[in-house]
Structure formats: C-alpha cells, structure tokens
Design brief:
The chain has 11 helices and 19 strands. It has helices at residues 3-9, 37-50, 82-96, 98-102, 120-135, 145-151, 179-192, 236-242, 305-318, 367-380, 404-407, and strands spanning 27-33, 55-58, 74-75, 109-110, 113-117, 140-144, 167-171, 175-176, 196-198, 203-208, 213-218, 221-230, 250-259, 269-272, 277-281, 287-291, 327-337, 344-347, 353-357.
Length: 411
C-alpha cells in the first residue's frame, strides 16, 4: 500500500478543498444563481479570463446538488446543425485539457460514441450527421455491422431480433468524465481566485429598478447586485419569473439507473435513438443506463417503475447478459426543455441579466464551453459568436435550431 494512501486513511492533516461558506456581503458586482457545473464554470472563467473579483455563486442546496449530480456523464459533439456542432466541439476541446487547467483530476475518459441505426432511415440520418460533423471539423463516420461488432463485441448483432443493428454513427471523440469532480474542480479553482461560493442560499425574490435587477432576496439576507447570471436548470422558469422574464421552457423529469459493478468490459458509449436507450460503463464498473425524458411535465426528481420497464426491454435486446445483473439504484433529475431541444444563452430582455437555461439533456457535456461563453457575455455585455445560435430572440424571429433528433436520447 502506498505510504501517502496510508497517511490519508489514518487522518493525516489535509487542506480543505473549499473554504467555509462566508457571510453574505451587502453587494456583489456579479451574482451567479446556481452552484452546478454551469454556474461554477461561469464564475471560474470570469475570474480567470477577466479578473473578476467581487463575484458570488448562490446555490440553494449543496454544491452541484441539482442536475450536475444526476446526469450520466456523457461528452460528445456529434450534433446536426453547424452552430451546435461548433459549440460542443469547443466544449469537448476544453474537457480534454480540463484536468490540467484546473489542477484537479476530472477522470476524463475517451471512449468513442456509437449511435446505432436499426433502419434504412436511421442510416440516412447517420450519413447526414456524419457529413455535417466532418464539415465542422468533428470526427464522425458511418460504419457497418462488422465494424460495430469489432468496436463492441458485447452487443447483440443477431439479425433475428426485433430491431437488428444495421450500422452506426461512430464519434471517436465521445467520452465521459466524473460529474462531481468537474463541479468541485471548477469550485476549488474559482474560490482560490476570490469567488465566494454560498451553499444553502436560496433566491426567494428580486427587486427591479427600471429594467434592471437591483436587489436579490435570499433566505440568508438581501444583496445589492450589479450583474446577474442565471444557471438553475429545472428551476429556470421559477427564477426567470422573479426577474419578469417568461421563458419558452417546459420542466420534464429525466431518469437513469445503474447496475451493480462488474469488471470493465464495455468501453464505448452505446446509444440507440430508435429504441430510446443508452448505456456506458463507469470507472467503478457500474453500467449507467438511461432513456428519453418523461412524457409528462413535473418538478419532482423521483424515479418510477414505468420508465425503468420501458428502458429495460430494448436494453436487454441489445445486451442480453444484463438479465443476470441486479439494478443498484435509479434516480431522476429535472430537465428544462425548449421546443427545439437547444439551450437559451446570453443576454435577456432585462438589462445585465444573463441566461444559461433550457439545457434539457445536454447540460453536462456543455459545462466548459457554456461557462466560457457566458463569462464572455457577462464581461463584454455582448453575445459571443459561439452562442449566437442559442439566443432567446430565435423564438420570436423563428430561427429555431433543429437539434431534436441529434439531442433527444444521446445524453
């Protein structure tokens, strides 16, 4: 056993990752509402790239206790529209160097990502996405049954099943990372640069002075604010309404589950949009499985037997060996979904109030690029080119982003 590990286990004095929550100041130049991945990344890049000092992150629960703690850790950039592809390409690039950037191991793991095709129509869509990806500098290609079997020998490639695999869209840069490590890495580095992180601090109201949020009321007191960034996922509608903003968003539960752990045997991430399921294996050996968002609106993160049953049927067809395994746990999150399955980012109708909302099933993979771009927007007061395609105005000028097919299941 390494001596350093023995010292750690016996309680050797260790430096605390984050300082204790400080008292709230009377005012802050920038307040970030939401202490999940996007809020923490925004605060970090504001401090690192723009030297912002008087910044506070407000989180109503514990650090990253919302969707950041409830996602399934998949990272990819194989989308369909140029704007989305470029944005997620930037995020993948930032993820690839994030452990070194933060000085914190986020357990980034390149895996490869297979979107299975079970019909001629699905194969045509795969070719379309592959060409769009290549045009935008993203590594994707359509592969046949033989190549799929070589990349994932555990997959049921029989032709005598309901939905035989005809081929797949292979995205070489697909990866995973440890979700809590991403959040804590950003939090640690941001706090070292002077950002205050306030957990158990819920925003309960806002005061507007003209067309600007002047004060934020929390369960710990009232704060005078300069600029406000909203990064609250499933609570997007509620918090935006406090600022007088109506968002074209629905809150829908999204569920996932994991099996008992076994030795590593599944390397790539496997997705079937047609069957509405996906699976990967974690570093701890658990099979992480999920499907589509729930078909009904709701604000509860409880899991349900119905969704589990819907997932397990097609999952067992793809991987029959799972029938011998036990389900370890199941959970849910709240996805804030727009009609075009794309986020709302940048400026809002309220002065100095910035939105990072509508992430739906895309939030985790977008954390680095989302924080990077939002920091630019806050610091300059302008929407960066990287996120112009995701502006709120697209819903009034009918320039919606057509990402539902590429975003729905491949979380």
């Amino acid at each position: 056993m390494p001596f350093s590990l023995l010292k750690y286990g016996l309680g050797a004095k260790r430096k605390q990752v984050l300082p204790p929550t400080p008292p709230l100041k009377d005012s802050y130049d920038i307040v970030v509402i939401g202490g999940g991945g996007h809020g923490l990344a925004t605060a970090y890049y504001l401090a690192k790239r723009y030297g912002a000092q008087n910044v506070a992150v407000l989180e109503k629960g514990w650090l990253a206790s919302g969707n950041t703690a409830r996602n399934t850790t998949i990272i990819r950039s194989n989308y369909l529209t140029s704007g989305a592809i470029q944005f997620f390409k930037k995020s993948v690039e930032l993820y690839q160097g994030l452990s070194n950037d933060l000085g914190y191991n986020i357990m980034f793991s390149p895996r490869g990502h297979l979107t299975l095709a079970h019909s001629d129509a699905a194969m045509r869509t795969s070719r379309w996405r592959a060409e769009q990806n290549k045009l935008n500098g993203v590594r994707s290609e359509v592969i046949g049954r033989k190549e799929v079997a070589e990349l994932c020998p555990q997959l049921n490639m029989s032709e005598d099943i309901r939905y035989p695999v005809l081929g797949a869209l292979y995205h070489a840069d697909g990866a995973t990372a440890r979700h809590d490590a991403v959040a804590w890495g950003y939090a640690k580095r941001a706090s070292e640069m002077g950002v205050e992180i306030h957990t158990q601090t819920e925003v309960v109201g806002m005061d507007l002075n003209g067309n600007k949020v002047d004060k934020i009321h929390t369960n710990r007191g009232t704060i005078k604010v300069g600029k406000v960034v909203q990064c609250v996922a499933g609570a997007s509608l509620k918090v935006a309404e406090m600022a007088g903003i109506k968002l074209p968003i629905r809150a829908l539960p999204l569920q996932a589950c994991v099996s008992e752990p076994v030795k590593p045997l599944l390397d790539p991430i496997i997705v079937s949009g047609s069957l509405a399921v996906y699976i990967s294996q974690s570093a701890r050996g658990e099979f992480v499985m999920g499907g589509e968002i729930d078909p009904y609106p709701g604000a509860t993160s409880r899991s349900s037997t119905e969704i589990k049953e819907e997932m397990m049927g097609p999952m067992l067809e793809l991987f029959p060996f799972l029938a011998n395994m036990k389900l370890l746990r199941q959970w849910g999150g709240i996805a804030d979904v727009t009609d075009d399955y794309s986020p709302i980012m940048g400026l809002s109708p309220v002065d100095d109030y910035f939105l990072s909302a509508g992430w739906g099933t895309l939030g985790f993979k977008a954390i680095p690029a989302g924080g990077y771009a939002m920091a630019d927007a806050v610091a300059t007061g302008k929407t960066p080119d990287l996120i112009k395609t995701f502006s709120l105005e697209r819903f009034s000028d009918m320039s919606l982003v057509g990402e539902r097919a590429a975003a729905a299941v491949g979380h």
